[in-house]
Amino acid sequence: MYQKNNRREKPEFEQRLVDIARVTRTTAGGKRLRFRACVVIGDLKGKIAWGTSKGADVSIAINKAVSQAKKRMVKINTYKDTIAHEVKVKSNSAIIFIKPAPEGRGIIAGGVVRDIFELAGVKDVIAKMYGTNNKINNVKATFKALEKLRKVSEEEITGVKTDKISNDKDASKIEDTKKIEDKKEIKKDTK
Fold it and tell me: pTM here?
């Protein structure tokens, strides 16, 4: 007997609708009404993107924004569920300041910045928006800041060298000490 599988496939990316607006364009025959959608998508593992698009219907605008976002995917550099260093960026009138937070602190951010970090999979971060409340400009500034993050090793953060002496060097040191001991024994035997 045929059983129908009711489970849905999990989507590749989670998406959040950041902004939806009704926009009009004035033409010779009057005003033409459309919808603009701004969407942020992410896989909760460091890949994230955003897109904005217009459509005659809200669902059309959202679908177009998601397809646009998939074309400009960005991989962000994280370090132990947070970011590696502080970044301050200005884009248009939006200023975004982000900095790493201690483990367990959570996402301390507001508005669209919180959504972006949640979709990126960053668990501990502190962020502050200055300048404007325009959601699209804040999204642009946040992505500009995330692109400026560089990959940092643990050595650069802690200041402690992680390079250990390789086994070959240890072996050569042991061999050198054995040779010295052998020479001492040979000198004792000749006396």
Answer: 0.72
